[in-house]
Amino acid sequence: MVLDDVIDNLRQYVSLSQEEIKYFFESVTVCRFRKNKVLVERGQLNSPFIFIRKGCLMTFFTDEKDFKHVIQFGMDKWWTGDLNSFMNGEPSIYTIKAMADTEVLMLEKKSFEQLCQRHHAFEGYFRVLFQNSLVSHQKRIIRNISFTAEEKYLTFAKNHPKLELLIPQKYIASYLGITPEFLSMLRRKLAKRK
Amino acid sequence: MVLDDVIDNLRQYVSLSQEEIKYFFESVTVCRFRKNKVLVERGQLNSPFIFIRKGCLMTFFTDEKDFKHVIQFGMDKWWTGDLNSFMNGEPSIYTIKAMADTEVLMLEKKSFEQLCQRHHAFEGYFRVLFQNSLVSHQKRIIRNISFTAEEKYLTFAKNHPKLELLIPQKYIASYLGITPEFLSMLRRKLAKRK
DNA sequence: GTGATTTCTTAAGCTAGTTTAATAAATCAG
DNA sequence: CTGATTTATTAAACTAGCTTAAGAAATCAC
To answer: Which residue numbers delimit the Cyclic nucleotide-binding domain (chains A, B) (predicted)?
Structure first.
């Protein structure tokens, strides 16, 4: 019996036979990356869908003025990747970088499709995964359009205490859509208030 | 042979037998709403998943200060709804309102689950639907954190010319996360520039 | 068609958040 | 351990976007 975090995760949503578990592991590749290593370059084709076993990944977008905007942090037991590039074969618009030594499972599109086709359970799993992710993306949009910088920061710090410690502040600022200088100022103000 | 926009839409992603089409129509309820009618109230349980056949729906969130924030507009051939409420049985955090006379197909959670269980094709369809929606939500987040108000507005106007005409400006402002006064000012500035 | 209500515009004053720049602190490479 | 590089802090000047308020235009109900 193969035990693994990813299987625990899958089993939260669907039930899997031994055969299906075996097939899943045949479909993915285990990779390890050192801190600061870039996993997915902007412009890359065939970008994979990635399950983070352990570590931390950061996904960011580089605009025309060469500014970097952090789109997502990924931690243990999260899936990440450029979904559009993965699904539609287009070049990745994001860069994905390891923020700590990280171990991942990489799933290629072909394997993903076979997985979904052959075993109904996986299709169901990914449906639920996307559906949940959609709910949290919607919540983030609400925060984006209705929260002040302070509220955004406090919510982030409360929801992701581990990231708050692990990630350099300037990236957190970028994720929140504010400047690092202003975040620094906010933190000072909040610390005084206590 | 039943022909319908919703079937066209489903068939863009998966192939369906006559039996599956029949079963789909047994699973949904056709409803019509006059302009300004509220379809889903905040706090409502069992909120449905909604396919818009014709018309326009607006989804908004009401905060503690009683401000309304527009989360989404939905037009012909779009699915909409409070996904969290629909999937997890929680009270809806959104209000959904008709912005024009609108005809929809309503899908209840129970029917949704039966649909997915009995016919693999529907599970696949919703997986792709959520996946595509996720991609556009991510793009919206990029715009939120990296665009100026002017860039946000221009992108919206370019991508949704029909909505731009149909929807009162104050709701568009809300959707973009800016005040109606500022949008008005922007539009004047842009009109002069031409 | 008319009065009532909602939406849009305009403008002045304001503030949350940015920009720039310089210094301090922390981390990294060898 | 040391110099080099990256990250964080601080502060002053600035600006994009907000608030308030009042009038104009459009839409709605009857």
So the answer is: 12-115
